[in-house]
Amino acid sequence: MSQLKDAILSVTASGDKAFIPYIMAGDGGLEKLKPIILRLQELGVTAIEVGIPFTDPVADGPTIERAGERALASGTTLRKVIETLTSFADEITVPLVAMTYLNPILAYGVEQFAADASVAGIRGLIIPDMPLEESEVVHPALTAAEISLVQLVSLTSTPERMERLTKASEGFIYAVTVNGITGARSSFANELEAHFKKIQSYTDTPVLAGFGISTATHVKDFGSFCSGVIVGSKIVDSLVAEDWEAIEELVKASKLAANEVGI
Ligand SMILES: O=P(O)(O)OC[C@@H](O)[C@@H](O)c1c[nH]c2ccccc12
Questions:
Q1: Which residue, among 74, 174, 81, 76, has the nearest Cα to 119 in the 3D structure?
Q2: How many Å lie between the centroid of ligand 1 and the Cα of residue 45?
């Protein structure tokens, strides 16, 4: 069972698309984590991806990397993020998906991490530097704590690997939208449609698109052929600017059912 998957499926069953904002825990200080999470869930997001800052963030883009540097400078650690989340876990109504590299988890202790993360409201986990072949290091402890291990599927994966990653992915499939497609974003949706349909054909676990999604039009475009989106850099920038209107506009773009009937 996966609370994360269930949350996404209940959104798509109602005709809307899943919307998962990414935030960097500790950007602006850890005291901001609670108000940000509570406000995002009030806006109607499906889940929240919570990034844990790391000194060697090989998979992060420049915006996320800088946010990570700010978070580290303010003293943020995996342990402090979990403690902070736990302090208001009873107010968290959406599943949290932690995004952390493998090292901090190993340093914390895999079993202890899984148990503490679960109490903190973490229902999914993305470990971008852990290959599928090595996931047995963490998988049993995560399963015991009912935390879904989400796999990233990139455009460059071979068909065999794509199928393997897709079938192994829990909660949802994180389908990476970009690869050599830079600049003109207006056309990327069309090119990716076939790729996404292929991924979805392997599984009934929802496929979500992430990377480079920054406008309401992107959200709607991707929503037309997958189960929803993950938005990172645009959310991080908007939080720094305290531009909640921009965030609200993106979330609204995922509410297709409401838009159709004009409410
Ligand atoms: O920032 P973007 O282009 O909106 O993409 C989301 C991405 O940043 C976020 O999901 C993320 C942050 N760090 C990661 C590391 C690996 C995979 C994904 C991530």
A1: 81
A2: 17
